[in-house]
Amino acid sequence: MARLPRVHLAGVPEHIIQRGNNRQVCFADDEDFAAYAHWLKAYSDAFGVHIHAWVFMTNHVHMLCTASDNRGISQMMQCLGRQYVQYFNRRYQRSGTLWEGRFKSCLVQEDHYVLAVYRYIEMNPVRAGMVGLPAEYAWSSYAINALGKQSALCQPHACYLALAESEVERQQAYRDMFKGEVNEALLSDIRSAAKSGMALGNDRFKQEVADLTGRRQQMGQRGRPVGWRKQI
Question: Structural domain tally of the chain?
Fold first, then answer.
């Protein structure tokens, strides 16, 4: 089956996932994480991409980004991927592929969904059982968004800024988002959208994306249409 083209829209947030090939380790230590972060900063600046939230796990990465043009994210990820593979292969005296094919991405509706993806990304280490709290994991944007740690890499989305007027109140409101039970239906929607590459949002948002891009954003019905036998 032919691969569907990715959908990118300038100014619309995207959830990005890139995994190691066969889920192999892509980051062996802090030096690897730091190298990836360095080149992510360089290429996000070069191609006009704002990084709002991120987490680097041992065998995959998640990011929430917004690009200033339709090609920015693809260009950033291509350059970043090549640069990091060269570094990783040289450091560990290996050759061949590192990433699991193309990165996955989906557009994210701002209302009700952007902040949910922020949380989804930064809770990854907790869901994986690596830490008990998101603040305990060093290689994510949680300390920046929730605790005010300074970072040149992370740039806040308008939905994050709208949480409160002052930085202190905003960080408290952000921390409050991580309390309470996870909405399992929303969690499932985030995973499904990332896997399929279709937009994450309500039906109106999906239709708007489809109209702008010419690619449907709703899952098609599986199987043969009703009454197909009568047409034979």
Answer: 1
